[in-house]
What we know:
This protein is mainly alpha-helical. Helix content is about 65%, strand content about 0%. It contains 6 helices and no strands. The protein has helices spanning about 1-20, 40-50, 55, 65-80, 85-105, 110-120. The longest helix is centred in the C-terminal third of the chain and has 20 residues, at about 85-105.
Amino acid sequence: MKRTAVMCALSLLIGGVALNPSSVHSAPWISAGDSYGSAWVTDIEKELLKKEYWMIYANDPRVPQKEVLRLLNRAANAHAANDVALAQQLAHEALGVFEEGVRRHYYAQSEIELLTAYIQAHIPIKLS
């Protein structure tokens, strides 16, 4: 009886440790705020993840926020390294993620206008 109780307690302890969430096991795209190349990328992340936009992303299986933030972070790193051409290219690609969603009919152009305008207003990279 005691042996069974000890085994149950140990299995619960081991199972609890295995199920305990940690930053090592979390999805890296959810929030990489500590590793962004610039503070403006963090600001854009906050905007993209607002609850008011969930319906825009509902039909898009690609998880566009993740891709846009990844590209903008790379653009921020290129901008910090004074590689203006690469930073511009990556910023255009980031905005292109939303444009591709429009082409694939995941959402309408009017639905993403606020998001793309916000991104364009908050990036220090001059888009041509």
